[in-house]
Amino acid sequence: MQHRGKQHLIDAFSENSRAAMLFFGVVALLCATAISPAIASQPGDVPVDLAPLSAADLHTLETAFDVIKNDYAGHVDDEALMTSAIKGMVSSLDPHSEFFSRDEFSRLHEQLDGGFAGVGLQVGMEDGRVRVYAPLKDTPAEKAGIRAGDFVTYIDDTPTQGLTLAEAVKRMRGAAGTHVRLTLYRTRDDETKTYVVTRALIHSSSVTTDIPIPGYAYIRISSFDEQTITDLATRLRPLAYTRPPLKGLVLDLRSNGGGVLQDGVGVASAFLPPDTVVVTSKERKPDSGHTYRTTYVDYRRTSFTDDPLAGLPVMYKTLPLVVLVNAQSVSVTEVVSAALQDTRRAVIMGQPTFGKGTIQVTGAVQGGAGLMLTVARYYTPSGRSIQNCGVVPDLMVDAYPDGDVDALPAVREIDLANHLANPLNPNEALLEVLHQRDVLDTLRTVEAKQPHESSPPRRPGQRRPPVEFGKSNDFVLKQALNWLRGRIVLLSKAQSVEYCNGASGNVSP
């Protein structure tokens, strides 16, 4: 098919969400989250509409605790047992509510501060394996020779098969100066290599830029953190003086697991007119929530001394823009994509996004632990909810010219246990049925393409090199550049059926 031309909102982590890319040193998936100074202001502060636990409930909890302590086959630490009890209670609510131990909560804040100790890789789960998306520039991993597309098979002596992404990342963490032995399988060479990597403090910009062809700029944002707005503005200013002058932009948000919502609002503000609605949050109570606009007050960080976007060339609000997304574009990434789509500022290209449309409040509780709780939903400028639906691209494009024929179904919000329903989708039940049918059909197709048992087994995608975003084998980027130049765009052979709120349909160059 062809076609021409409430406080600091952050993304925190959930072990159930396996689809997003992580930095080594981050414990799990980044998902749109709101952080407040604390969940409860003072000990003993109980909302007036909440009754205390009954004596019967407390007795049941105490009895279970005592039985486990006295009769369980192994020794159980009191603190670990209580932490697990709270984790179970919170995690049963939805995939993104979570209770953090002291160490986990400390690591979360370390990541949000923009630095961590690790080896310097971006990774994610693919077909049940830990895949390297890219080594960060000038990090131990890049210097050791680890490449995009490598699969991590062992961390020291522990096989990664069966580990969650959070568990694998945790094992690769460690103090700066310590060593970790990584065994990797390289598909392009069909060989296994072992690297001993010395961990270091990682401080890397989430924004990179390039000029893939004269007159067209490529901007990649890998996550949203405290430096994203400043880094974006710093890189955009010199691009405005590129010769020949810029005629179009590509904003790459693929495999971006999210980050800080203010930074997402700031990124949207770089490309949208002043005072434009970016996203609206709505809590359970009527008339609660907030509408975020392209104003400094809505993307300001406490660390900012002035507006990083002040004086940014106005050309960036009018230049033709294509935004690239995929199934690993999550949460705040979806906020930015939907805002640019709803306002008809950009054409969205790629594959439907993850589909997370909820906001969590994260704060400290007694003893240094932390609690993340889903408290609100967010809505796009046109009033859509992307919960379970994702942002559906205006132009569906596969990762490879012949389609993603070997790819197993990506994990999305709708696949997660206890996911919340889309409040605006009357076809929610139908959507789930059709989605599960599509997943099964894809699995059958992949299985049918596998060779006979007498032949050596072939892993999905083994025979072709993995896509490196922004590089010469990036087929989707090539299609984006084609669209900007009014040339033929090779669309996906399997078009997505939309059962949610619909896309804006921005397709005119």
Automatic annotation (TrEMBL):
Question: What would be an example GO MF term here?
Answer: endopeptidase activity
Q: Pfam families from the entry? A: CtpB_N-like, PDZ_6, Peptidase_S41
Q: Provide the alphabetized UniProt keywords.
A: Hydrolase, Protease, Serine protease
The ranges of region (Disordered) come to: 447-469
One GO CC term on file = outer membrane-bounded periplasmic space
Determine if Protease is one of this entry's keywords.
Answer: yes
**Biased composition annotated in UniProt, kind: Basic and acidic residues:** 447-456
Location of the PDZ domain: 105-175
What family does the Swiss-Prot or TrEMBL record give for this protein? Belongs to the peptidase S41A family.
Give the protein's recorded name: S41 family peptidase
Q: Which source organism?
A: Trinickia violacea
